[in-house]
From TrEMBL:
Entry's transmembrane regions: 16-37, 65-84, 96-120, 245-271, 283-302
Species this chain originates from: Leersia perrieri
Matching PANTHER family: OS02G0130600 PROTEIN-RELATED, PROTEIN ROLLING PROTEIN
Keyword list, A-Z: Membrane, Transmembrane, Transmembrane helix
GO cellular component assignments: membrane
Domain of life: Eukaryota
Name of the protein this chain belongs to: Uncharacterized protein
Length: 329
């Protein structure tokens, strides 16, 4: 059955491939939903300062705000350019879903960074004063290479005080956790999008007919670049169990495609491996389901490596906060 006849009748949706592929969507979603509450209880909490304080002691939070604002403006510009040139039909593709999610993340992250910078600069706030004293006056004017033991001890004491200040910061609320969820979902989806495009679609499916106009829009590379730079600047934790939301996101996209085709709203599949008319469709769906694991843990490994090796390479510049406060509800 060709793509043109995918939505022509009920016979297409009664094929055995549909039921197998449906199970490959439902089962991971159900498993993620069942395990998520249990795994979340064992995870450390997210503090409000994790959302806007950089992981670099010498870096003023305004720099993180400036970068996030720049990334937001660039992402919005790319989306507007694509919409003007191709219309809303571009959102038939998972790439544009993911890029929109990245844009939403930077919108929320910019807003929370702006609020954090306001808190940081408020002289009436004791916590903001302590952060300002450590991050601006003392650290920026300090030569950490000095051999004087007294100076080194004072530096270490200030770092310890800063850690204690952050550790005692209040836990982020619902909106803070939503930003973290969007961040982690965007990270997994970006890895899946870029690796699938460059490693599968371009070499095997679109070698002859896929033009480079979409590539020049930068969405299959800049999404990862934007997020990775933010990751190397921010201090947000990256708990692995939130891969569940990445699974929810991808399953929502596939469900959207199925509903759209079943209702006759679309007669072609944006990605050839989504076509249920092929006898090999279950294998493609299984492969893409499995691909979510390495894609998410690739980004998780990057964050893990950052927290592991940066403190060794940049002992006095990198601030790794130990999360030892009460856990999430």
């Amino acid at each position: 059955m060709s793509e043109a006849t995918a939505a022509d009748g009920a016979a297409y949706w009664l094929r055995w491939q549909v039921f197998v592929c449906g199970a490959l969507i439902v089962l991971p979603t159900a498993a993620a939903a069942a395990l998520l509450p249990r795994l979340r209880r064992a995870a450390p909490p997210l503090r409000t300062t994790d959302l806007w304080v950089p992981c670099w002691a010498r870096l003023h939070p305004g720099w993180l705000l400036g970068y996030r604002a720049f990334a937001l403006a660039a992402a919005v510009a790319l989306l507007v350019r694509l919409l003007v040139g191709h219309g809303v039909n571009v959102f038939f593709f998972y790439t544009q879903w993911t890029f929109l999610l990245v844009t939403i993340y930077f919108a929320f992250a910019t807003a929370i960074s702006a609020h954090g910078c306001w808190v940081y600069s408020t002289k009436n706030s004791k916590k903001a004063d302590e952060s300002h004293e450590f991050l601006s006056d003392d650290v920026e004017n300090r030569d950490f290479s000095t051999p004087i033991s007294g100076e080194r001890k004072r530096d270490e004491k200030k770092i310890t005080n800063y850690h204690e200040h952050i550790a005692n910061e209040k836990i982020a609320g619902l909106w803070g956790r939503c930003i973290q969820i969007i961040y982690q979902t965007s990270a997994g989806a970006t890895m899946l999008t870029d690796l699938t495009f460059w490693g599968l679609l371009v070499p095997f499916f679109y070698r002859d007919k896929f033009g480079l106009a979409l590539v020049t829009d930068g969405m299959h590379s800049l999404n990862a670049v934007f997020l990775l730079i933010d990751t190397f600047l921010n201090n947000m934790p990256f708990p692995w169990y939130r891969m569940a939301f990445f699974v929810f996101w991808s399953c929502a996209y596939v469900t959207f495609q199925w509903v759209l085709h079943a209702c006759g709203g679309l007669s072609w599949w944006p990605y050839p491996f989504l076509d249920l008319g092929s006898s090999g469709a279950p294998l493609w769906y299984l492969a893409m389901a499995i691909a979510h694991i390495p894609c998410f843990f690739l980004y998780w490994s990057i964050v893990k490596a950052k927290h592991t090796y940066f403190p060794r390479l940049f002992q006095h510049a990198y601030v790794r906060i130990t999360q030892n406060v009460q856990r999430e509800d």
